[in-house]
Each structure stands twice: as structure tokens, then as C-alpha cells.
Amino acid sequence: MLEYTDPEYGERSVMSAIPLKNFEDEAQALVSVGLEAFARGWVPATSGNFSVRLGPNEVAITVSGRHKGRLTIADIMRVDGSGRALDKKRPSAETLLHVSLYRRFPEIQAVLHTHSVNATVLSRLVDGKLVLEQLEVLKAFRGIDTHQASVVVPIFANDQDIQRLASTVEQYLEAHGPIPGYLIAGHGLYTWGASLNEAMRHLEAFEFLLQCELEMRRASRP
Ligand SMILES: [Zn+2]
To answer: In the chain, what is the straight-line distance between the N-terminal and C-terminal CA atoms, in Å?
Structure first.
């Protein structure tokens, strides 16, 4: 049986039904995701962060400022459900955006944040929201089984006050319900999934779709 401190009640609770995932296994999986994302040009110059839910009140996440193309298990740390370090390492300020998603949606098991050229440029070109439609790859998103679906991707203004940015995202999710991801203007993409594999599939789909959108805009210019 596992014990953890319940943030709601502030006392030791005994949890036998929800085992924690193995930290080393999940950290290794995050290292692989980092190497792949860097190789594909999605996380230049130490940018981006990746996380996996370990248990009810614990998350594994990349340490602040680490180069994603050279990650090792030492570059992954543990934080609690509020984003506070559970070891001696320093979490990125953006950890708050990860944990707020885990808190809101119990089914989310992994969150991926990238700074690709496509996400950065498109989020500057388009105001407020990007609507993706009539594209076969939309079917890569959970729950979508036709290219005729329409996926609205909100674009939030960038903000160095991550607490305020997290509340803006929370308010949007409260009003609009589940979405597969969002953009931050001039900054990058957040996406997630019910497993690390699903989150990675969503990330690949987004990067492809964002590139299609950019190419279509370029091709249709007079
Ligand atoms: Zn970022």
C-alpha cells in the first residue's frame, strides 16, 4: 500500500487502489520524448517541457532549463499536484500550466509543451483562435472520427506571469470544456493525452496540422 499526503485534508491517507507509476520508467519515457522532439525541431535552445502523471498528487516533469536534445534521467524531477518540488531540483515556472491540467482533467496522464517554428509563427499570425477543419489528420485527436470535424484551438496572449496565464487557460476550459491543446502567442503549443503515447500522437498531429495551415496561408497569398 502507498501513503501520500492528501492536499485537501492535509493528513496522511492510505491509497491502495491507485498505485504510483514507477518514476524511473516514466522519466526514461520523458527522456525519449525530449530527444525525439528536439530532433524534429520542436524544442530549440532548452525550450519546452514534458510531464507525466505519476499518481494522485505527483507528477514527473523536465527540470527547468535543461536541453531537450541531451536529456538524461537526472533532468527529470518530481513535483506535487501544486507544482512544488518533491526533490532538490528546480521546476520550470511553466510547471503550473501542467499541474492545472492534471487537476482539472483526471484522465490526463501526460502533458507536452513545445516551441516549434510552426506554432510560434502561426500563433502570431492568427488572433484569438485557430479553427482546424477538413483535414484527415484531425482523426488523430481523441474522440474525432471524421475529417469533417472542426477543432478550435484557442490562442492565449503570452504572459511571463504564469499564474495569471494558468488562470486565463482555466477560465477558457471552464467555459468551453475539453480541447486537445492550445497555443500561446509567439511562444508555443500545449497538448496532452490519456497516455504519453496519446499525447505524443496529439503533438505530431498538431505539428502537421499547423504546418498545413501555414502552407495553405502562404499558397493562397496573392
Ligand atoms: Zn514555453
So the answer is: 65
CA 47–ligand 1 middle distance (angstroms): 6
Cα distances from 139 to residues 15, 22, 118, 143, 147, in angstroms, run 37, 31, 20, 8, 6
pTM of the model: 0.89
Longest CA–CA separation in the chain, Å: 65
Q: Supply the mean pLDDT for the chain.
A: 90
CB atoms within 10 A of CB 155: 21
pLDDT per residue over 101-136, tens digit each? 999 999 999 999 999 999 999 999 999 999 999 888
72 vs 89: CA distance, rounded Å: 14
**Ligand 1 center–CA 187 separation, angstroms:** 6
Decide if pLDDT at 15 tops 60.
no
Q: Report which of residues 191 and 5 the model is more confident about.
A: 191
Residue 144 Cα to ligand 1 middle (Å) = 27
Ligand 1 mean position, distance from CA 222 (Å): 34
